[in-house]
What we know:
The complex is a heterodimer.
Chain A: H1 22-43, H2 49-70, H3 76-97, H4 125-132, H5 139-149, H6 155-162, H7 166-182, H8 195-210, H9 227-239, H10 244-258, H11 283-298, H12 304-316, H13 326-339, H14 343-357, H15 359-373, H16 375-378, H17 381-393, H18 397-409, H19 414-429
Chain B: E1 2-10, H1 19-39, E2 42-47, E3 55-58, E4 65-68, E5 76-85, H2 89-98, E6 106-111, E7 116-117, E8 120-121
Antiparallel strand pairs in B: 1-5, 1-6, 2-5, 3-4, 7-8
Amino acid sequence: MDPLTTDDGGWPGRCRPGHEGSAAEAAGLAARDSYGRLLALLSASTSDIAAAEDALADAFERALRAWPSQGTPASPDAWLLTVARNRLRDHWKSAQAQRTFPLDGHQDSLTHTDDLDVDALPDRRLELMLVCAHPAIEPVAHTPLMLSTVLGFTAEQIGRAFSVPASTMATRLVRAKKRIKAARIPFRIPGADELPARMASVLEAVYGAYVIDWATTGPQARHLPSSEALHLAEVLARCAPADPAAHGLAALVQLSASRAPARLDANGRFVPLSDQDPSRWNAGLIERAHEHLRAAHARGELGRFQLEAAIQAVHCARRPGGPTDWATLLTLHRVLHAIAPSLGSGVALAAVIAEVEGPAAGLAALDALIEEAGQRGRRFQPARAARAHLLGRLGRREEAVAAYDGAIDLTHDTAERQYLQHRRDGVTGQRGDGAGGSAVRA
Amino acid sequence: MRYVLLMSYREPAEGEISEEAIAEAMEAFGAYGRALQEAGVLLSGDVLQPTAATTTVTRRDGGLRVQDGPFAETKEALAGIFVVDVPDLDAAIGWAEKCPGAQWGVIEVRPTATALVNGEWTR
């Protein structure tokens, strides 16, 4: 289940028209698209996101009142932008006058909005995303800020996604927005010397929506990338079409999302990648991802997200009953671990080495990695799980059972723990099948 | 091995936390409790009333002294205790990380020295 779009039909912010169904969902996505574009335009000149949000929420509320009786305007976005701009102007005027005055009804009569072509205005969402992931903003706030400003999700919805109380998330968002305004973090595309590092933070924050690190144990399925990550990555790829990493990230999120329907079996049990039925994967998402991969490839640069996406693409190329191209995967994993080494990439590489060169070679690589990482390596659940799988395949049953127990101790998700227990029980009866398991993202 | 997870955080003032926030926290603790239970590691869990409800008892100065309130005023007060039985510190830290109280407070992870089980002190 998508934690962010469960109960509001997809409308951003405080605006809930109260209809349901897939048409509403499509309208909701379009509304999110508009929301981010309009908010970026409204806050770009002042860096005052909170005031822009209030103005835009006010405009949406007026739309809900006015449109049913007066009819939807020819350009809804132009209408919303004009009303919100008037509202902002009132806000500044009253701030200057040090007193509040009532809204002038005539200002909202909107006789000229049809002259305003929002599509002709620049899309400032990339600048907005750069602000959200600015080095002066604490990293933990980057992803929530983007979900709030670019897609218009409420603190409650974002809090639910991160398993953080709504009040905590609201405080975090308010603090970050105040900081953006007070420090006047500018809405601009940085120069070539600064841009790569700044874009890296933006990519990281969008990636953060894809791998939301559940801070608590809940009933949530941690492996399901949800539509908010898909949408955020798509917006970034559209706003930064020349950035191969943005395309790579969009492809990565889409390919991973494409397998969501196959990740749980009919009994709600976790199905590892190697056992999934490819016919249950979403072909449309896979096709869209390949377009992004071609766009990334055309730039001729190799980066972490392109590589991760390419790895996903190889997995998604497996046909029903067909083999996986492990040799290609090994090359990709080696390069990935070389340019962006992490515990996760190391464990995945060891699992693939086991497929190509045998479980003994995989185990040697894994043990070297754990040794090198020290305490963090020993506490890394995927490393423990992969080690257990490999020991099982090598027929070292006692060690495998002990390793499974060690992995189970660090597993807080019930479905995944049941899977590991099932595998552990299998070791005593028969040889294990496949080293992938939870080491390779399912 | 038994570990005690000691939750401490700043006590909110009366009415400082909304009903919704309280409901959310209860839901989070509910999920946490179920996860501990399903993993078979939970021995006990108590979330404490505020320090205003505390009574401190001592004889260390000779006579009996019963005092209203905690023995030491601190910014952050003990707010709850989970006792878990897990194989090692790594596993205990893993559960502490997942504790809802870690979102707004701190969790101390302390191994038990000896515990009273079925009326007997264990070693």
